[in-house]
Amino acid sequence: MWETYKKGFKAYLQLEKSLSDNSVEAYLHDVELLTQYLLVKNDLRTPDDLMLKDLQHFLQWIAELGMTPRSQARILSGLRGFYKYCVDEQIVRSNPTQLLEAPRPKRALPEVLSLQEIEAMLACIDLSTPDGGRNRAILETLYSCGMRVSELVNLKLSQLNLDVGFVRVIGKGNKERLVPVGRDAVKFITIYRENIRIHQLPKRGEEDILFLNKHGARLSRVMIFYIIKDLAITAGVTKTISPHTFRHSFATHLVEGGADLRAVQEMLGHESITTTEIYTHLDREYLRETLQRFHPAYQR
Q1: 247 is a catalytic site residue
Q2: Are residues 85 and 127 in the same domain?
Q3: Is 248 a catalytic residue?
Q4: What's the pTM?
Q5: pLDDT (tens digit per residue) in 144-185
Q6: Catalytic residue among 45, 172, 215, 288
């Protein structure tokens, strides 16, 4: 019985929805989980006989199997797709998944570097080498401007307005924003541009790119990751970090210092303020840790 429904659903996903093989398999796996649950309960009813409470019990069952809220939400999405197919094919009279609430995935707070950890990483850079001078400018820019790594590797000389302390950043969806740049970043970008980059021959089409590799091409995002990873190891920083960690640290330190959330949103280039609000959670966590470390009531 259920095999017939699955075959029909598979054809629907392939022919009407034109989904990839991987997506089709993922949807079918979600339906297979539901049928496994029904077999375990010895209650293999048709989709039309299943009610809201049955699907709620199913979600509880997969949670007890150890599936994360994110995985549960994805499985529910698959079941919604299956029931939409069943409604379209008149296999069911009503859709119980419409009232089924997905568990909210817990949003993991990103790793954040302390100012001391950032300074330790900066201190490990060998400024006597061309790569060292470039890498210092890169880290100062990441931390000073809170750029995404994609924005950094595509940063152009023509986007720099260092005389007035601003950088023009082209973000997601080609949206442009002006971001203030700190004095240290201005200093090391200037040193790199005037003493290191000037001696490089850029590849055709890369003439305006600020940060270049030894071949005169823009750096890859992976290369930025390795630069940061190596510096973290050398500095003894044990946190799991990436270029994005500097963006998180930039925003967190601003919020901890009392910056207006709308201003932080503008500098990060977030379309929605709700995306920026994660840094208020980080700030509260920081305050809680501070209270526990220093308040006498917690020292007893």
Answers
A1: yes
A2: no
A3: no
A4: 0.60
A5: 998 999 999 999 999 999 999 999 998 887 888 988 899 999
A6: 172
